[in-house]
Write a structure and sequence with these properties.
Layout lengths: L1 H17 L9 E10 L6 E11 L4 H6 L2 E5 L5 E5 L5 E3 L4 E11 L4 E9 L20 E9 L10 E2 L6 E3 L4 E3 L3 E2 L5 E7 L2 E5 L2 E4 L20 E4 L6 E4 L5 E13 L2 E15 L7 E2 L2 E6 L3 E9 L6 E6 L24 E3 L4 E2 L3 E8 L10 E9 L9 E11 L7 E5 L6 E5 L8 E3 L4 E3 L1 E8 L21 E7 L4 E4 L8 E10 L7 E2 L6 E4 L6 E9 L6 E7 L13 E9 L7 E8 L8 E5 L14 E10 L6 E6 L3 E2 L2 E7 L2 E7 L9 E8 L8 E8 L6 E4 L21 E9 L12 E4 L3 E3 L10 E5 L18 E9 L11 E7 L7 E7 L4 E7 L4 E8 L12 E3 L10 E2 L19 E9 L5 E7 L17 E11 L9 E9 L8
Parallel strand pairs: 10-19, 21-28, 62-66
Antiparallel strand pairs: 1-2, 2-6, 3-4, 3-7, 5-6, 7-8, 8-19, 9-12, 11-17, 13-18, 14-15, 16-17, 18-19, 20-22, 22-26, 23-25, 23-27, 24-26, 27-28, 29-30, 30-35, 31-32, 33-34, 33-36, 36-37, 36-38, 39-40, 40-43, 41-42, 41-44, 44-45, 44-46, 47-48, 48-51, 49-50, 49-52, 52-53, 52-54, 55-56, 56-59, ...
Length: 970
């Protein structure tokens, strides 16, 4: 008993020494670090710590904190002085303290900037013990990415001071009003407060408790919660159940183009009061306006207690810091700045303030401006004011280009469409450290439609789903654009223009689309209507062409005689056109179309087996002046149908392609198959509805789905070849070409042999596992090598192969491991003994392999676990008599991987420490000296060789008596 009392008094004395005194009074309530790059030619950053101090209970300590240590994440540090003067907030109950410096980093990379202040505010309930929370230091950090493509990037700044109060039983919310001048996307997540470990090291405070520990129910009586909205940053505690002071932390992430480029941590404190006052309520809104719009948005707040309300707002457009000063250059938006009319004054409720902002083109950006709206009630003396928050989200978008017109031209030798518009009034030039970027005007085009569309409010860029694609970009000062890209006669073209502002993804963004203008080239050339493969051969292929006369050209319009020149190129998209034939014509309207059969020549064989071919028809008239044949233009090129056959498991996958001016979509294509080779006979086996350009496929499983020409259904085998043809059907989408009806074309013949990739049937696996409950302390005593016995059986099924030649055994030491190949055994063996193991813990599965090398899916996974056992005595006699001379486990320890063992004397002083696989302490101190007889306290941390890699160690705490006076234990 005397020894115990001495130990307790010693601990109490040490605790007394650590108690705070008034010279180390409390002061730090909250803070965060922000940065901005100052120069595009150097890596110099302005770095600011904004700290909030308690001026009620720590005024003297706050006043004396004139400098703090900054760690820059590049192995350099600096003592940074506080800027003067200190600014007081909340009726001088708190102050905002700014510590600012500049630092040049050595090169691109990721840097974590941190700082700490020695004492936190005292009496913080969720930093137990609360009466000593000032002994915990305050530490915050900010991480930045320095990269060449980020330019003059700044971290977001937090414009709302974290100094509000909460009420017991009511939902409390805080919004930091984070603003990023670069327009980067912000995301929010909860974190935990940190403390300094000396130097530049820090850690999460181990004793920190989540605020929900101090919650019973939510405000509405449901489950309590402590959350942060990942998009808006609204942090809410619903709801505290006791009065007092609480700390927590959250992180503001900065994202650009899907990459995390920085994060800022705010550590903050709130005070919860227990009083009848109810929090006021405020409503947010979401606006989207064109640049140049004057915003006059009413903001209304109410108070359940009927008290007056005070409405304030925080956000980049207001150009005010957390302490009400103008934002520094480089962080503010271009004027004119927003303001809150009737904000910051008591209002009879329901109170209304007006958010007033004359927007302009400099404020266009892709991300919305989030304005944090705050209301607090105006309460009698002695009552704590409560707050609520809402968000006013304002997106400023670029206006549309106006007065768009167009003109089409199809003169001999060229096709063009010229678009004109009024000068764009919202262009600008921006340089964010990556070189100047200017507003561009993007011209979009769609083919085949001039259906009207109405640009929707705030839906920027080209309208989705209507088929508009970009065809050009011009400077914002331009007022015209000429399109010459792959224009075809007889096709309707619709054009719109969209402004792309500097910064595009961040501070820029796409503007509203213009109205559309629709045009069509006159059809003064022939119209191809068929390219069909008649014969598939490597040297004697044959393709038939058909085309119609120029529909908008009459005999006599141009000088006769007229001539068609047939041109051919190799491949679906071939452009190496050569003339292969000519046809004279008199443009007789009674002639429906012209036919030409291409059979190649002695110098240019037509290999329809290996190639698709593409054709175009050029039309010539006779110039009346020169009497020379002159080209009026080319028909839009069309290719033959190209069929591909790909072997698969007991099936053949067909896919086909075309490249034609008519559409082959939304019609039925026909599949023909021959089981007798390329010479037929061919049977129709399927009619395939084709919906879109990526659906030209069919899988032949052997079935004949069309019975009208006979049923040829049979299973496809890997030792037979099957041949196929496809008939495509298409139509011109131009209504004026509907006269040509449905256009049918045959592909070439393509043959293939199926494969057979049937996997073996899986196996069912079993394992002889330990029964820990049946083991005695002496079981496995002294055993160092173990064996796991596996057994399995082969399953069967209609979709798998039962013919197995071998089995593969996979093993993973831990349950979290993906088992790796251990060994394989030949069939018909169905057992395996995994021996020479240091522990039975491990997991297995088995696969079957057939003669083709196909491996089955894994069997069921089976696992074995060890049966740990470890116990220690409470006395030993290290007197050299050979009996009980060392402190070691009782009986036999099982499955022990390591033991960390620490011994303390009765005064709490550590005298011995070791980490070993087998504990065998001889009663000596760490320096080798013999310890005297007496009572000692130990802690043994035992890790076991079990299945779970992350299994927590067993911690044994107890005492042991050392007896040396020639005492032997029998």
């Amino acid at each position: 008993m005397r020894l115990l009392c001495t130990y307790v008094l010693t601990v109490l004395f040490i605790g007394f020494i650590l108690l705070p005194n008034e010279s180390r009074a409390t002061h730090v309530r909250a803070g965060e670090i922000t940065t901005r790059r100052l120069s595009a030619t150097s890596l110099t950053y302005e770095i600011t710590l904004t700290a909030y101090f308690d001026e009620q209970r720590g005024r003297e300590a706050a006043a004396t904190t004139t400098e703090v240590d900054f760690c820059f994440g590049d192995n350099s540090t600096e003592k940074v002085s506080r800027l003067a003067p200190i600014r007081f907030l909340n009726g001088r109950t708190s102050s905002i303290n700014i510590y600012r410096t500049t630092h040049t980093f050595p090169g691109p990379g990721t840097y974590t900037i941190s700082t700490f202040i020695v004492n936190r505010n005292n009496l913080t309930i969720n930093l137990p013990p609360p009466d000593q929370s000032l002994n915990i230091s305050f530490s915050v950090s900010t991480t930045i990415l320095i990269a060449p493509n980020l330019g003059l990037n700044s971290t977001p700044v937090l414009l709302n001071p974290p100094l509000d109060s909460a009420r017991v039983g009511q939902r409390f919310c805080h919004n930091p009003a984070a603003y990023d001048v670069d327009g980067d996307s912000l995301a929010y997540r909860l974190s935990r407060p940190r403390e300094s470990l000396g130097g530049c090291r820090s850690r999460f405070i181990p004793v920190y408790q989540d605020p929900t520990v101090y919650s019973t129910t939510s405000e509405s009586g449901g489950t309590p919660s402590f959350t942060i909205d990942a998009r808006t940053g609204q942090l809410c505690w619903d709801a505290p159940n006791r009065a007092g002071q609480f700390n927590f932390a959250f992180i503001v992430e900065e994202w650009r183009n899907g990459v995390l480029i920085g994060e800022v941590t705010r550590d903050m404190q709130i005070v919860v009061v227990d009083q009848p006052n109810k929090r006021p309520l405020i409503a947010g809104a979401s606006l989207c306006v064109e640049a140049g719009t004057l915003i006059q948005q009413p903001i209304t707040a109410t108070d359940p207690d009927g008290q007056r309300v005070n409405i304030t707002a925080f956000g980049g457009p207001l150009n005010l810091t957390a302490d009400g000063l103008p934002l520094p250059a480089g962080l503010s938006i271009s004027p004119e700045y927003a303001r809150l009319i009737n904000g910051g004054i008591p209002l009879a409720q329901p109170g209304t303030a007006t958010f007033y902002w004359q927007t302009n083109c400099n404020q266009v950006r892709n991300q919305p401006y989030d304005i944090t709206l705050k209301v607090n009630d105006v309460v009698p003396r002695g009552t704590v004011s409560l707050v609520s928050f809402a968000t006013l989200s304002v997106r400023v978008i670029a206006p549309a280009v106006r007065n768009i017109t167009g003109r089409a031209s199809a003169l001999a030798g060229g096709r063009s469409i010229q678009i004109n518009w009024s000068a764009y009034g919202c262009g600008r030039i921006v340089d964010a450290g990556l070189g100047p970027d200017t507003t561009k005007l993007i011209v979009y085009r769609r083919e085949g439609s001039c259906s009207p569309f109405n640009p929707q409010q705030c839906v920027t860029g080209p309208p989705a789903g209507l088929g508009f694609v970009e065809v050009g970009r011009v400077p914002y000062a331009a007022t015209s654009f000429t399109d010459t890209t792959a224009l075809r006669r007889g096709v309707t073209y619709s054009y719109i223009i969209v402004a792309r502002n500097p910064g595009d993804v961040n501070n820029g963004g796409l503007g509203l689309p213009s109205q559309q203008v629709c045009l069509e080239l006159p059809r003064l050339t022939p119209v191809l209507t068929q390219v069909t493969v008649d014969s598939t051969n490597e040297t004697r292929g044959r393709i038939t062409l058909r085309w119609a006369r120029p529909l908008d050209l009459k005999a006599g319009d141009l000088g006769a005689p007229y001539e068609y020149r047939i041109q051919r190129a190799t491949g679906l998209t071939g452009t190496n056109f050569v003339t292969i034939g000519t046809v004279n014509t008199n443009l007789d309207r009674n002639v429906i179309d012209t036919v030409y059969v291409d059979q190649g020549s002695s110098t240019s064989a037509l290999n329809t087996t290996a190639n698709a071919y593409r054709y175009q028809i050029e039309f010539f008239y006779t110039d009346p002046t020169t009497r020379q044949l002159t080209s009026l233009g080319l028909a839009d090129a069309a290719s033959s149908v190209r069929l591909s056959t790909n072997p698969a498991n007991r099936q053949v996958v067909l896919s086909w392609q075309t490249n034609t001016p008519w559409s082959n979509d939304n019609l039925t294509h026909t599949i023909l198959r021959s089981r007798s080779g390329p010479n037929g006979p061919f049977n129709i086996i399927a009619e395939v509805p084709v919906q879109g350009p990526n659906t030209y496929t069919f899988t032949d499983t052997g079935n004949d789905l069309v019975a009208r020409d006979g049923n040829t259904s049979r299973v496809l085998t890997a030792d037979s070849s099957y041949c196929y043809r496809v008939i495509t059907r298409g139509r011109y989408t131009d209504a004026r070409l509907a006269v040509f009806g449905t256009l049918e074309n045959y592909s070439q013949i393509s043959c293939a042999m199926p494969t057979d990739t049937t996997k073996p049937c899986p196996v069912s696996l079993g394992l002889d596992s330990l029964n820990c409950a049946s083991l005695t302390p002496e079981s496995q005593c002294g055993q160092t090598s173990f064996t796991n016995k596996l057994r399995w059986r082969q399953t069967s099924g209609i979709n798998c192969d039962v013919n197995v030649v071998s089995y593969k055994i996979y093993y993973g030491r831990y349950s979290q491991d993906t088992p790796a190949l251990l060994t394989s055994v030949n069939a018909p063996t169905i057992t395996f003994e995994h021996s020479s193991l240091t522990t039975v813990a491990g997991c297995y599965y088995v696969t079957a392999v057939n003669a083709r090398g196909q491996e089955s899916v894994p069997s069921n996974k089976v696992c074995n676990d060890a049966c740990p056992y470890f116990a220690l005595p409470n006395v030993f006699t290290p007197n050299g008599d050979g009996k009980n001379d060392t402190f070691q486990p009782l009986r036999c320890a099982r499955a022990v991987e390591s033991v960390s063992f620490v011994v303390f004397n009765r005064y709490g002083t550590k005298v011995y420490e070791t980490t070993t696989a087998t504990l065998n302490w001889d009663g000596r101190a760490s320096d080798g000296t013999e310890l005297p007889s007496g009572l000692y306290y130990y802690q043994a941390t035992v890790r076991y060789a079990v299945l779970d890699r992350n299994a927590a160690p067993q911690v044994l705490k107890g005492y042991v008596q050392i007896l040396r006076d020639n005492v032997s234990m029998r």
